[in-house]
Amino acid sequence: MLKxxxxxxxxxxxxxxxxxxxxxxxxxxxxLKADNYxxxxxxxxxxxxxxxxxxxxxxxxxxKGVEILTSDFGFKQAVATRETGTIRSVLQNHxxxxxxxxxxLVSPRGELxxxxxxxxITDTVADLVFAARRSRGSSIxxxxxxxxxxxxxxxxPIRAPNVVAWVGMAFLLDQALAERIKxxxxxxxxxxxxxxxxxxxxxASTLPSIEKETLLNEIGNIKDIITSPVFSNxxxxxxxxxxxxxxxQWGIIHLPYGPWLExxxxxxxxxxxxxxxxxxxxxxxxxALARNMTKPIGRLVDYATQIGLGVTKEKVTxxxxxxxxxxxxxxxxxxxxxxxxxEEELTYRxxxxxxxxxFNQSAVEFxxxxxxxxxxxxxxxxxxxxxxxxxxxxxxxVGNIMLSKVxxxxxxxxxxxxxxxxxxxxxxxVLFDRTINEQDCFNLKQLFNVDFEVEKGSNIHLDISIGxxxxxxxxxxxxxxxxRLEIVSDKAxxxxxxVVFYVVGQDENHRRQLTIIRDLPAALEAxxxxxxxxxxxxxxxxxCQEAEALIxxxxxxxxxxxxxxxxxxxxxxxxxxxxTKWIVNSVLSQLSQWWAAGHEIRVAVxxxxxxxxxxxxxxxxxxxxxxxxxxxxxxxxxxTESAVMKDREKVIGVLKALQEMxxxxxxxxxxxxxxxxxxxxxxxxxxxxxxxxxxQFIDTNKGDEFITNATIGLxxxxxxxxxxEGAENAEGVALLRQYHCDKIQGYYxxxxxxxxxFLRWRDTFNKH
Length: 768
Fold this sequence. Notes:
Layout: H1 5-70, H2 73-81, H3 84-97, E1 102-106, E2 112-115, H4 122-135, E3 140-146, E4 149-159, E5 163-172, H5 175-185, E6 188-194, E7 201-205, H6 209-219, E8 230-231, E9 237-246, E10 249-256, H7 258-308, H8 324-351, H9 361-371, E11 378-384, H10 387-394, H11 396-413, E12 419-424, E13 427-432, H12 438-448, E14 452-455, E15 458-460, E16 464-470, H13 478-494, E17 499-501, H14 508-525, E18 529-538, E19 543-555, E20 559-561, H15 563-573, H16 576-596, E21 602-606, H17 609-612, H18 617-627, E22 635-640, H19 641-644, H20 648-661, E23 664-670, H21 676-680, E24 687-690, H22 692-695, H23 702-717, E25 721-725, H24 730-738, E26 743-745, H25 755-767
Parallel strand pairs: 16-17, 19-21, 21-22, 22-23, 23-24, 24-25, 25-26
Antiparallel strand pairs: 1-2, 1-5, 3-4, 4-5, 6-7, 6-10, 8-9, 9-10, 11-13, 11-16, 12-13, 14-15, 18-19, 18-26, 19-20
């Protein structure tokens, strides 16, 4: 809800007013509370003054009453003669008349002569008498503590004519006195003292008994409220302590704060109602204001929503609004037009090639997703052969011109085509609703036999290859259709006439290759691959001390896979290094067992071009030999000359590093590569293996015999050992021995064998 502008505007108005009202209310309440407190303090101060005046007036009244007694002649005579019984009787009678609680007679030195009650106040009275004598006072009025109770004491001297004694009357500060003071001040009065056992306040009070106990317990230390009044916990009373001049004895004035508190609460309630009413009015005002202010915004939002939904500008009319929102409306209208133009441009770019103006690959795939499956029509792919050379020789600008001209000719040829598209680079695709035949392809070829004029007087001839996929073979899947089209396109580039029609089953080989690439990791883990060893027989000693490791793969679905097939596929897919790592570890693991048993056999492993381009190969081989605790001479590596030619400098560097380690290196399939003799002297190898193509028919083909003899002689002159591959009969073996070939391998001696069979064959052969 608060995400809308209208809701936010309403909330802003309400919040602004609420803050203003709250601030005003808090200020008023704070001022009212402070004023109430100030009035309460003033009332207590007045009551305190009345309290003090009341005690002073009472002391003066009592003093006069005692002076009447001291002026009585008979009483003076009794005091002079020390008639104790008479004195006590007079004291009791006179004390009863003036409501004295205790009456006493004291000697001029402050010694207690007699009292109406047993008292232990000799020291207190003596101090008062001595103080009066020093000040030459005629009477004494003070407050004293007798048995933890506060008394107002009056002492008047008896003169005859000198002071012969002091008459004292003590009046208890009790409940009755508190009630009398309350009647005058209108406030509750307490006379309290601090009990020694609980340190709690106790004494007389005009407060109700329940409130008295609670309030006195809350006050605790009376000294804290002597200077300024404090509230009770429930703020029902405001209390102020009064020092009455007696240790641990105090008076307390209690102001009932209820009326002030009730007034404060009434005011607070009124403010709350005012605050609530103001907020309600603000809410109504805010809603009305927000609706009025957000109405043009709502119209603009609806307009923007329709633009966002892609409605055309003819169906959306910009709202007519004045002021700043009108400017925004016009801006959005301009924006809508720009969006429509931009969308049209983006839609065109998304489905068209920017160079030629033809459709692009995305447009083709979208069309096929809607059109497949279907029976009628054809897909024709056209590749410009060797177009990269034109870019390299003449530059990309000329290349782009040529591609545009190719597009124009395809439009002439495919005038009845449903779609003409440029897929990538020099590849074009034409889609027909009719069946394309060989004559159509011949016509296209003829059209391209006419040279293209790049500049005036400068012509270029382009050759094209054509692949045709009838829709009946396109399947319902766009990916399958494009894959089959790619198959015929690749095949057309390889054919001399450059025209290939798709035939059912052509993509089976492609699927087979994908299966091989996909299943290799699982096949290695499941031991579907295994190693066989073909013996290498030494001619001089007529024994077998070496072998070549060959890989065999029996696929659970595809059956036996020829090594040439899956190795070529893995090299093309970039997965060959995974296979190389596996065979190196498998061979070294087997060699570690043989060498531990005393069979010091050297086994050769074939490396691919990808392996030789890895500069980490020497370090990898060294770690593998160390892992299986084998000497370097236990392993030989064979590389083809064609693999060396991939990157001659890098490969030769890797081979030199291996040779420096002491690894035996051999050139495999020698004689079938390019420039064999010119590079042979630069290769850091130890051995040359003559390809089986020259050995298989050496006994019947004089050309093969001559090439083999020359190769052996040349290799020996360069310091290389020579191994002949593919020896299959005794006559060929005899010729190889005659030409001093170093080692021979072939079916004449043995086919490739698994490890156990190889070891048994070797033992048997070496015993001959």
